[in-house]
């Protein structure tokens, strides 16, 4: 499994280099990311891959000094259950 960053999205690739998931965001100004979509192919669910996609978004926000608005229901659940993400959550 590999996660690559593209324009406003992280792409999850399987070992055959096929896209099996993504997390997308839009930028709201220079200091804000809005996570609007997280998806993992049903065949690959249950492996914490969506969690890894959101984690990549959190790490990107930390590197770039941004805050995140988790509009996507999955990302919102991640932020609600992981207090360690509070440093990048826009309150």
Automatic annotation (TrEMBL):
Pfam families: Acetyltransf_CG (PF14542). It comes from the Bacteria. InterPro entries: Acyl_CoA_acyltransferase, Gcn5-rel_NAT, GNAT_dom, GNAT_YJDJ. SUPFAM superfamilies: Acyl-CoA N-acyltransferases (Nat). GO terms for molecular function: acyltransferase activity, transferring groups other than amino-acyl groups. Keywords: Transferase. Residues 1-91, 2-90 form the N-acetyltransferase domain. This is GNAT family N-acetyltransferase. It comes from Enterococcus ureasiticus.
